[in-house]
Amino acid sequence: MANARPHHGRRPSEPRSPGVPSPGADNCSEILASWKTIQTNTFVRWANEHLREAGGDPVVDLAVDFSDGVRLIALVESLSRRKFARRYSRQPGRRNQRLENVTLVLEFLEHEEKIRLVNIDSSDIVDGNVKLILGLMWSLILHYSISDQTWDEGTGASLERKKELTPKQRLLSWIKKKLPQQDITNFTSDWIDGRNIGALVDSIAPGLCPDWHLWKSGNALENAKKAMTVAEEWLNIPQLITPDELTDPKLDEQSAMTYLSGFPSAKPKTSICIRRSGGCAVGPGVVGLPLEFFINTLDEDDLSNATVKIIDPAGFTKEFDLISTEDTRSLCIQFRPEAEGMHKMVVNLDNAQKFPEGILIFDVKGSVAVSGPGLEWKSIAPLRETYFEVHADDMKIKDLEVKIVQPDSVDKSVLHSDISNMPDGQLKVEFTPLVEGPHLVNVLVNGVAVNDSPYNMSVSSECAEPISMKGRGVQPSGLRVGDDAVVILQANDTYPEGNHETPPSETGKTQQSKLDVSSLEVIVSDPDGAEVHGISEKQENRLKYTYRPERVGRFVGAATYRGQSISGSPFVVNVGPAVACKSRVFGSGLHSGIVGHRACFTVDCHKDEIIRIHVNGPQPVEVEIKENVDGSKDVSYIPLAPGEYAVHILFNDNEDIPGSPFMVDVIAAVEDFNPTKVLVYGNGLSENGIPVDELTEFTVDTTLAGQDAKLCIEIYDDDYNKLEVHMNEGDWAGAVECQYKPQKPGQHKIFISYGGVSVTDKPFRVQVHANPGSGAVEELPVEAATMKEVSSQVTLDNNDDVSNEEQALHVKAYGDGLGSGYAGHLSNFVVVMSNCGKECLGVAVDGPCKVEMDCIEEKEGYKFSYMPRTAGEFIISINYAGKHPIPGSPFHVFVKEATNMYRVRVYTGDKLFAGTDANVYVTLYGEIGDTGPIHLKASRTHLNKFERNQVDEFFVEAVNIGELRRIKMGHDNTGVVGTSWFLAQVEVESPLLGKHWVFPFNCWLAKNDLSLEVAATIVDDTRLIPEFSQASINNSQEMTVKEFTESSTLVVPCENTLSTVKHNDDESVSNSGDGVGNYRVNIYTGDKLFAGTDAKVHIEIFGERGGTGILELESSKKSWNKFERNKKSKFVLDVPDVGELFKIRIGHDNSGLFGSSWFLDRVEVESKLLGKMWHFPFHQWLSKEKHGCKPEAELFPHQIVNAYKLSGSEKISEKSNVSDDSVRVSGLGLEGQLSVNVPASFLVDVSDADPGNLLLLSVQGPSEPCPVNMTYEGNGIYNVSYKPQEKGEYVISIRWGNQSISGSPFVVTVA
After folding, report:
1. What's the rounded Cα separation, in Å, for the pair 424 and 427?
2. Per the confidence metrics, is the pTM higher than 0.85?
3. What is residue 380's predicted lDDT score, i.e. its pLDDT?
4. Given this model, what pLDDT does residue 524 score?
5. φ, ψ (nearest 5 deg) of residue 1082
6. Could you give the angle at which helices 167-178 and 195-204 cross, rounded to 10 degrees?
C-alpha cells in the first residue's frame, strides 16, 4: 500500500461548477489564478472526452472525483485500451480502499505503461492535492495524446531524429510543417488572436477557413469561435478549451498543447473543398474578368457525377466553362461574371452532401479602373519615373497588358514598363519616358481594352531645377480629415527650416541656390478631381503650401517649377477619417535631430490602446522602446543620414494617431557638439517630489556640450497642460537657471533639448504633492530615513564679518554633484561665499553608505568632491553658521548604478566568403563582472554589416565592469546566404576610462567551431593586447547551445568557458586549452517539504580576474535526478581560472512539470589550481511563485545566515569561545539601551578568522525572532542591522563554525 498522509479535506455535499475545486481541497489557493483555472477546466474536459468513450461518469471536480480511484481507473483503462488484471473496490467506503485503488493505477502507469511519475503517491490523490493531480493529468496527456499517436512525418533518418524530440518539440515541429508561412514559436502568445487556429484548420482541410489571413487580430474572440466551431463540426476536434480561454493573455502552454494535440490525427468529414486559383481566400471578383475555381475531393470520391451551379445575385443560374483534368477527383471551373453582387456556387455529389455555409459565396465588384499621375497629368518630365494604377480585385499580372507607344520620331516603338503587385492587391505600372512628345498608353485586360484606352500622355523636354519636396502633406498615409497638410518645396542644398530648432553655430552655412520662388506651384485634387483650396507662403528660397482635406479618400497632388514636374511629383495622399485617440506624444525626437545623436520622444499610452511605432527615412533606423511602470513608452532612434524622417505612431488596427506621421528634419553631424553632455540638476527635478503651488528651480549647464545652440524646455502636468518656464542666465557662461510653478498635483514630465536633440534618453519625471512638508522638499519616508546611518561632514571658516541668517541667502552652490551621479564615479560641486561673513560653512552627506569628502579652495569658491560607492539617494546639507541652510539645501542627489559606453569596431577578414548574415554577439569581461551577451544590431558605418574586408562600428552601453580583461565573440548560425564568418580583429574603446584594447582573432567562426574568447594582458597604461590560445578552435571538443532569452536566438558557448558541466558520477569533461583551472562545485538542497526542483539550474562564478559566464549544470547519464530534497549534487567545471573568488550567482529558469521552487541550503566551490574552498551559505528559497523570493541570487563567501532560531544540535553553549581576537564585534547594537522601531547595528570582523568556517547569527526577541539585514563592507567586515519590534530582552547569538565567539550570546534591553 502506498504511504498515506493525514486527510485535510472533506467531501462537500453540494454540487459545484465543472473544473472548480472544493473549498476544502489541499492547495486550492494555488489554482485561483486565471491560467490555473483554464488549465483545470481543460484537463477536466480532456478526461471527460475519454470517459465518454468508455461510458464512465464525467468528472466535475478533479480533487474529489478522483479521490476514490474509480473514475481514475476508468480513465486509464480507456486511454490504454487495457483492463486492469487485479480487482479493485468499485464502491470504496473506507480510506484504505481508496488508497488501494489509486495505488493500483499508479503502479500500472509506472510499471506497465512506463510513464515516469515524480513526487506523487496515492495519498496525494485521495487527499485532493490539486497541484499534484494536475501534474498527473499532464503526464497522461503527454503520453497518450501527444507522444502516443500517429504522426505524418515521413520515414527514415528524419523520422528517427524526430522521435528523439520531446513531445512539445514534436508537436511544435508538426505545426511548423503545416504552417510554414507563420512564424510560430510557442503555445501561448502565438495563438491568442485566433488567426493561427484558422490557418491550421484550413491547412488540414483547405476551404474550411479560406479567409483566415484576412482576419484582424483585434477580433481575437470572433476568430477563435469561427475556427474552433468549424474544427469541431468538420474535423471532429472537441473544444477542450473554450474560445475565450484560448484568447486569454494568461493562456498556459499545457492547456493549448492539450487542445492542439487533436489536430495531427484529425480527418475532415467533408469530401469536397473549393478554392480560388492562386490561394485559399475567396475575395471579390471583377465584372468582365474571368474567375477560376478548383473543386477537389478530400477522400476517394469521384467527381465525374457531381453537379455544379453558379447563381448570380438575381437568382439566375449562370453558365461557366468546365476544364477537364486528368484526376477524376478534381474539377476546374472558369466563370466570367456579368453583374456586381454576391454569387453562390453549389456543388452536390450523388449523396447531396454540401459544404459549410460561406465557403461557396463570393463577391463580384465593378469593372476595371485605371488612374494615376502617369495618365492624369498633362505634363510629364522626360527621364523621370512615373506610374499609374490598375484597380481590379483578384487580377493577376499575366492578365494585364500595357503598351506605351512613343512619338513618330522613334518609329512608334513600344516603351518598356514594369508591372508589380501593390500591398492592397492592385497592380502598379511604372515607366520612364525617354523622349519628349505625345505618347499613347494602351491598357488591356485579357486582350480587351479597358475604359477609355488608349490614353494620351504628353512628355515635355524642359527640366526643372533640383528641388526637394517634403512635408506631411505628401505622405501616402496618416493624414486625417481636417488636418493641416504642409508641402515644402526648396532648393536641395538649402538649410532645412520649418520646425527644426535653431541648429548649433557653424551649421547651416551652405550656399543658397538661386530659386525663383514665384515659379513654384502646388495643386492638390480631391477624390472627385476638384482642386483643393490651399495657402501658399513664398519664403526665401522655398515655398510652403498648406491645404486642409475635408473628406475621406484618395487625393492627388502635383508640384511644378516653371510648369514642369519636380522629383516626387505627382504624389498620392490617402486621407482617413478623423479619429479619437487618448494616447499622447511629446519630445524633440518628433521634430528635429542630428545624425549620430539619439532622437527621443515619449508616448503616454492609454490602457485601452495598443501602440506601434515605425520610422521611415533616407536610411533605415532601429527603434528602441523602453516600457515604463506607468504604461508610457520612452522611444529613441539614431538617424544615420541627413534628411526628412517620418515617425509613424500607430494605435489599435494600425491607424495613425492624430498628428502622425511626425516629420523630423535631421541635419548632418556637427563637430564639437554633444548635447548629451548637457548637465541638468536641482530641486525642480527631484524624483522625491516637490510641493504644489510653490516656485521651484533647476539648472541647465551647457558648458561641456560644445557649440552654442538653442535650449528648449517643455513641462507638462498629468493632464497634458503645458507649464510656463522662466529661463534666466546663470552665474557662469553656459548656465541657465530655470523656474516653474506646478499648479496641480500629479506626475509632471520635463523635456529638455539642446540644438533640437534631447539631452537625455527619457524625460525627467517629477512627482508633485498636494500636501508638501515644510520647506521646498518633502520629508523622506521612514524607510528611506533608516538608510542614513552614516554621514560625512566638512566645516569651513570664512573671514568676512557679516550677520548670519541673512548672509546665508547669499551663499550659492552649483554642480552636477548636487543633482545626480553614478556609483564609483567622482561627483563635484562648488560653493561660492564671496559676499558672506566669517562664520563656518557646514557640509554633510547622508546616504546608504559612508562617503569621504575632499575640499579645495579655488578662484570662484570651494570645490567639493566625493565618490558614492553604492546607488541610492544621498542628501547633501549645506548650512551657514551651523544652522542656517543656504538656498536649495538640502540637495537630493540620486546616484545610479554606473554604466559605461564602449565603442566596438569589428574587422571582418579579407577572405573568400568571409562575411556573414548571422546575428553576432559580444560579451565583455572586466575586473568586476561581465556585460552578458550583447547583440550587435545596427552598424554605424554600414547598412549591410559584417561583409568581407569591412570595418563595422557599434556603440555598446553596459554596466561598469572596470578594466577589460577579455571578450567573447559568437553568432547564432542563422542567415539566408551564409553563416560562417572569418573574424580578423576586434577593437574596444572606453571614452570613460580613456583606454583602448585590441583583440586579434584571425580565424573562422563556423557551425562546427565554438565561439571564441580571448583574454587580455596589460602591456602599458593605455593599451591591452590579448592572448589567444590555438585550442580555442579545437573541433574535437563537445559543444552545448544555450538559449539567448532576450531575442530568442542561440549563442554558442565559448571554448575554455564551458565544454561540458556534468554530474560527478560522469566526470568526463574535455578541454585541451592551457591555463584552465578545474572547479568542483557541491550544491546542497535543503531539508524542507518540496525543497527539490526539476528546473534547469545555472551558476556563474566571479573572481578577481573576471567571470566564467553562465554555466548550465547538466545531469549525467548515470545520475539524472539532481537537486532533490536533503541531497548533495556534485559537479566538475572545466573553465578558465578566475582567481580569488568574491561571489557567485546561482538560479534556475523556473521550468519543470512538477515544481520549480527550490530551497538552496549552501554551495561549496573548490579550486584545484589554488587549493582553496569557498563556502557560500544561503538557506533560502529560489522561487518565482513564493512571496518575496526570486529565482536567482548572488552569494558571497562567509555570508551571514539569517537564522531565526538555533535549535537542537545548533544551540550555542554560553561563553564558549574560539579565541579572544579571531572574530571581533563592536557597535551600539550589542550594548546599552535600545528603543522600539529604531534600527540598531553592529560590525563583525572576521578578517583574522579561519576562512574555512561559516559565520552564523540570530537575534531572538521576547516572543519571536527578529529579522536581520547584513551588508558586506569589504576586508572581512560585515555590517549587521536589526529593528526591535517590541520591548524586552533580546538575545544575539554569534558563532564562527561550531563554536560561539567571545562574549556570545549578547543580551540587550529594548525600552
Report:
1. 9
2. no
3. 74
4. 92
5. -110, 125
6. 80
